[in-house]
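Worked Example 4.2. Read the sequence first, then its structure tokens.
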Amino acid sequence: MFGYLIADRTNLEEKDFLEYRSAYCGICSSLRKNGLVRGTLSLSYDLVFLWMILSSMYEPETVTTQEKCPVHPFSGTSVTFNLFSDYVSEIGVMLSYYKALDDWNDDRDVMKLYASRLLSGAFEKAAAAFPRQAAVIKESLERISMLESTQSGDIDELCNLFGALLGETFVWSENDYWSEHLRKLGAAVGRYLFLLDAVLDLEEDIRRGRYNPLIQAGTGSPEWQRNAIDLFLGDISELYGFLPIVRYSSVLDSIIYTGMTAKYREYCAKRPLGEKADES
């Protein structure tokens, strides 16, 4: 993912932050224990957000232990693990594999090509384990790639495609009562992430002559961007507020209401309202 779904540390009590970090370590442990050491390339706190949503909704048996690892070889670290630790690690591998390929195609960065090859075996295993999610991820990214190759300015379609991709990863079981609502929440988060990434990259993309769907009339202004982002954030807040979240609610609230907008707020603070992207 993009690295935007992070908790606001200033809004968390120490116990909540330790739970958050322990869940992160649990996903890392899952990658290593399932032979996905190279899959640590895919590890980010975005995956903890998905883990906490699913763990809070379904309340599976969850175990917290102390483990030693390459990062904490002596004192060890707290590790929280449940069945969703394996699930989100597999999702992370699939997304990272495609991201590495996309970066290679865009920038011809040989390290990204190398990363995709390192992840290829883990990707095939993950895709076989979760074929429904893998199919939607593949289809959505192929459609996004096609639109990008034509320099499309259809930001709505692009956001919706990434929303469909992410929405499917939020659905653990298709037959569950909450599956459709979780799909809608994931789709709303995906639309927001795609738009935010385009907004934050806009000025650099213009300078470097790279494609960005916002390089078109009416979408480069701060007013348009803020209105669109506020609309997407409103959708996320409404859908999230409807869920019966109890466990991990402090961390999830921190992500939803302040953490996921942190980088955008930093961006706005450096760019006064009314200042347009430099297209010269």
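Now turn to a second chain, presented in exactly the same format:
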Amino acid sequence: MKKTNKTIILGITLALMSAFFYAFNFIYEKMFLTKVSGESILFLMYFGAFAGLYTIHLFSKNLNKSNKNKITKKEVPKVLIMILCELFASLLIIEALKIVNAGLVSLLLVFEIVMTSIIAYLIFKEPIKNNDLISIFLIIIGFIILNFNPNSIKEISVSSLLVIGACLFWGVENNITGLISSKEPSLFTSVKCLAVSILYLIISFFHGTLDLSYPILMFYGFMSYGLGMILYALSTKYLGANRATLVFSFNPIFGVFLALVIFKEQITITFLISLIFMISAIICLNKSST
């Protein structure tokens, strides 16, 4: 598709909408943690994302009998790794949300950019540009400032490690996704969501924490993860995968502001300074692709 100004603007709009919807993911999780177990929340949200995405796939014009969208035997190990990465990452995020507020967790998710770049360099031998290094440096400085809080240094340190661990798993998943990105997004993502939801169902069942009292979480799961993914897939058609991903990287910043508005979370000086560093890092990263 020829990229005119109108198509580029449309692509950026879709990518920003995708980032916005996805940012609600952690808001919903934090909102229901006092009412239901983390495993039940994740089961309902991932199952809702699966149901919505698979329904879209069934009614999609892309539905055909071609084999190009089918997962091959060679790709099965990659898909299994992605499912496990999604499982462990979301578990770590839930544990972090039990400790600190959603705004802090959202801000620390900028580390997903760092982890994705480092893994791409170490494992897939992709070069790191100068602006990428500057972005990583800015994120690390922001992280240090964010953790320099004498009032709750222990809690924030633990939560930071949990979120960084989640970003590590997502970094692996992002790189593997790039290897099989030709698959039809609604079908491929729905299969992944179904597998993760089944694992959470098993975990919550054996822990005795299964609670299906809030089926609305299935709708929230589709709205945040499912709809976010569809909008992202559409944006790649107008921007290309690389630029769409970079615009989508603003989702942690959306998460921060949503948390501040919805939960009325307090803004500290260290949080504000760290936010400036994180935003600067994302802008710098986006400039490296132009």
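Notes for the reader: Residues 1 and 265 are 43 Å apart (CA to CA). Residues 5-287 form one domain.
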